[in-house]
Amino acid sequence: MKKVRWGMIGCGAIAPKFFNSMKRVEDGEVVAAASKSILRAKRFGRKTGLEQVYGRYEEMLDREKLDAVYIANSHNFHFETAKLCLERGVSVLVEKSFTRNAKEAEALIALAREKNIFLMEAMWTRFNPAIVKLRELLADGTIGEPEHLQAAFCIQMNPLSPKMLPWNRMYNPHLAGGALLDLGVYAVSFARMIFDQSPSRISSSSKMAWTGVDATSEYIFDYPGEKRAELISSFREERTCEALITGSDGIIRVPDFMHPSRLVVSRPGRAVENLDIEPDRLNDGQRGFQHEIREVHRCLTEGLIESPSMPLDETLEIMQTMDALRAQWGMKYPGE
Q1: Residue 29, CB-side half-sphere exposure with 13 Å CA sphere
Q2: How far apart are CA 110 and CA 117, in angstroms?
């Protein structure tokens, strides 16, 4: 079997998760990784056993014969890094959030379509088996028409004062930090998936960190027909991470909607259904990115330049929605 040869750009905390998930994918392999820091790249190589590591992105792209590249550096570099790969004719999977803003996303999408090269946002939760099942239930009208969504993704990132963490990317506006782009994007994308459209009206609030990025942010999205999504994300507040979808004929609860393995369906006059959907997980119990990797492989095999499950137009709409949220807070990143 000819395996899809992957390169990785960015050797931070998320990179080992992707690398380890690849072990669960029969027709793919990571053959090289690159970082702007050769020391970080070598450390990643020692940790994973990967031999080919580079201190320059261009060097990896020029030396290795790659079928696809996974981009996992900080948000502010996604645009230029993805552009670098697309210009060399290499398919790209870009970690969320896709870019800093919709302008950058639109330019990347246009370039990929012009060159007829595969490009996808790495919204890995979209391909989780429980979320796939959820979409099937909604499409089948199991709870009727979705009318209301509540979803939260909030973590207490570090008990120390943020002033003691000036190096942390979440606080750093130069790295396009903040709760929205790192955590809130999951909830925004989830709402876009549930209601199959962008909101017609957006209201929001934010609690800003000392660096000027949102530490906690709340969003209310209104849709035609009096439908609504109420969302919250934070890296300073711990909350139950779940989603609750209320439809005209019932409710679906998604416990731990970031890593779901169970759906709870409640309908009037019927017993509550607990649908256990065991995800394909790594030996250490960590649920990985193998499902989105398999989707990329499927698309490459079938000659598709974007995924029907995570289409580029939808990614652009999500970025536009997040731009609108940041505009309400007056929050801009350096260089925008």
Answers
A1: 11
A2: 10
C-alpha span between 56 and 65 (Å, rounded): 16
Instruction: Extract the tokens encoding 205.
Output: 């609030």
Domain 129-278+309-329 belongs in CATH node 3.40.30.10: no
Give the model confidence (pLDDT) of 193-239 as tens digits. 999 999 999 999 999 998 899 999 999 999 999 999 999 999 988 88
Tens of pLDDT, residue by residue over 115-163, are 999 999 999 999 999 999 999 999 999 999 999 999 999 988 764 554 4
Burial class (CB in 10 A: 0-12, 13-18, 19+), 291: buried
Residue 10 to residues 36, 53, 200, Cα–Cα distance (Å): 8, 11, 36
Active site residues: 96
Question: How many angstroms separate the CA atoms of 80 and 94, rounded?
Answer: 11
Classify 4-121 by CATH class.
alpha beta
**Strands ordered across the beta sheet of 91-95:** 53-54, 28-34, 4-9, 68-71, 91-95, 119-122
pTM above 0.90, yes or no: yes
For residue 180, the number of C-alpha atoms closer than 13 Å in the C-beta half-sphere is 32
